[in-house]
Design brief:
This protein has about 110 residues and is α+β, with helices and mostly antiparallel strands. The chain folds into two domains: about 1-35; about 35-105, no CATH class. It is built from two helices and five strands; from the N terminus they run H-E-E-H-E-E-E. It has helices spanning about 10-30, 65-85; strands at about 40-45, 50, 90, 95-100, 105. It has a five-stranded antiparallel sheet, with no helix packed on it. The longest helix is centred in the C-terminal third of the chain and has 19 residues, at about 65-85. The protein is elongated and about 60 Å long. The model has no long low-confidence stretch (mean pLDDT about 90).
Length: about 110
């Protein structure tokens, strides 16, 4: 890309060249797309991980009323169904709600 900085990352030519570099790297590494499985993990030191259920649904102790508990239970059940479809929460400085195909659908 040369040494002229800062780069205009939205410039059409820049985007084309970056995409070409990325394609070259993938070819060099013999990289290809395929499904992967990620087990839940947590790295406390770097605040990064993947979980099947969002952090705010891990502790029901904030439920003060029966209505709160019922809502909490409904949300837990919804996330259990989502995790069966492969949805999960990826944490990397903040939470990213991910679909089974790796697309972020909420942050």
């Amino acid at each position: 890309m040369g040494k002229n900085r800062p780069y205009n990352i939205y410039d059409k030519e820049f985007v084309l060249q970056i995409n070409e570099q990325f394609a070259d790297w993938k070819r060099d590494l013999r990289s290809y797309s395929c499904p992967v499985s990620v087990l839940p993990f947590w790295d406390e030191e770097n605040f990064v991980g993947a979980q099947q259920i969002p952090e705010h649904l891990r502790d029901p102790s904030d439920c003060e009323t029966q209505d709160d508990q019922a809502q909490f239970d409904a949300e837990i059940e919804e996330w259990r169904e989502r995790s069966q479809r492969g949805e999960f929460v990826f944490y990397w400085a903040k939470d990213y709600y991910m679909s089974a195909d790796g697309e972020v659908f909420s942050t």
